[in-house]
């Protein structure tokens, strides 16, 4: 017995898979236990250390600590990521359209630009924006994120357009639409809907890449974590690391869930609902399926 893509595992294979799954789970639990014991030997689980978030020393309040992390740090991260995402998506659409141009004088240079920026590290683009162009640090971060991710978005959208059936284009040309009308009104909307999970996933990557702004001195979340650790002392490094990781995970998980929600909503919208067979009626027929007005 086989499914569409692979043969269904037999009893021996299922038993072997279960055994290795248990072994793998025990191995992971063992590593987690060793990490816990290592941290416990350094008193990292001491409740007094975690009070830095509820009753911090050095004359600070819990409100000061959380404001520096959530308002100042996360706010700077969200601001840079939001502006860069808008610019990158807009430029990505433009690059995808230009790369699919029928003229080689347009498509080839665009392809070169896309491949060039895809191969550069984001932090190098940030340095280029700050040092070579002379942008402020904030706009240097936005420049690096926008330039790199615009090339990625362009490839994602192009892949979505190429994956569509050729009949979509042929039907559009048949009703008199031009190439550009077909691209913007027929192909591109379907490509966006089809590639939406990949686009959201890249937005998650863009958000995480804002932490590279730490290298050029941008005061985003990672920078605020380091500043707090230096201010309160290195004994609190693990506590701030855990809280910072939790914040990043929460934000990225929210974006991932948003991708799943939008994908389901887009699928339902594309389907438009399906009528039941006993409720569907052909115009000009009666409920019994015979032509209306016809005498039998």
Automatic annotation (TrEMBL):
Q: Which PROSITE patterns does the entry mention?
A: ABC_TM1 (PS50928)
The family assignment reads: Belongs to the binding-protein-dependent transport system permease family.
Report the superkingdom from the record.
Bacteria
Q: Which GO terms describe its cellular component?
A: ATP-binding cassette (ABC) transporter complex
> What is the name of the protein in this document?
Amino acid ABC transporter permease
One example of the protein's molecular function in GO is: transmembrane transporter activity
Which Pfam families does this UniProt record tie to the protein? BPD_transp_1
Any idea where this protein resides? Cell membrane
Stated membrane topology is: Multi-pass membrane protein
């Amino acid at each position: 017995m086989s499914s569409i893509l692979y043969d269904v595992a037999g009893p021996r294979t299922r038993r072997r898979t279960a055994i290795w799954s248990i072994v793998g789970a025990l191995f992971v639990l063992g590593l987690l236990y060793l990490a816990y014991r290592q941290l416990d030997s350094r008193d990292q689980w001491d409740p007094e250390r975690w009070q830095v978030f509820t009753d911090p020393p050095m004359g600070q309040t819990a409100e000061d600590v959380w404001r520096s992390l959530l308002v100042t740090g996360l706010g700077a991260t969200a601001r840079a990521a939001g502006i860069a995402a808008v610019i990158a998506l807009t430029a990505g659409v433009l690059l995808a359209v230009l790369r699919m141009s029928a003229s080689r004088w347009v498509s080839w240079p665009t392809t070169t630009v896309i491949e060039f920026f895809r191969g550069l590290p984001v932090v190098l683009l940030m340095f280029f924006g700050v040092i070579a162009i002379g942008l402020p640090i904030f706009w240097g971060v936005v420049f690096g994120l926008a330039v790199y991710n615009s090339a990625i978005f362009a490839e994602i959208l192009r892949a979505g357009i190429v994956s569509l059936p050729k009949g979509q284009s042929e039907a559009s040309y048949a009703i008199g639409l031009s190439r550009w009308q077909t691209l913007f009104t027929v192909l591109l909307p379907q490509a966006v809907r089809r590639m939406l999970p990949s686009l959201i996933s890249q937005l998650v990557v863009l958000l995480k890449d804002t932490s590279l702004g730490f290298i050029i001195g941008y005061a985003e979340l990672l920078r605020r974590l380091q500043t707090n650790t230096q201010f309160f002392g290195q004994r609190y490094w693990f506590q701030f690391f855990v809280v910072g990781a939790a914040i990043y995970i929460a934000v990225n998980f929210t974006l991932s869930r948003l991708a799943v929600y939008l994908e389901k909503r887009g699928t339902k919208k594309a389907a438009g609902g399906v009528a039941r067979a006993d409720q569907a009626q052909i115009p000009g027929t009666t409920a019994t399926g015979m032509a209306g007005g016809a005498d039998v």
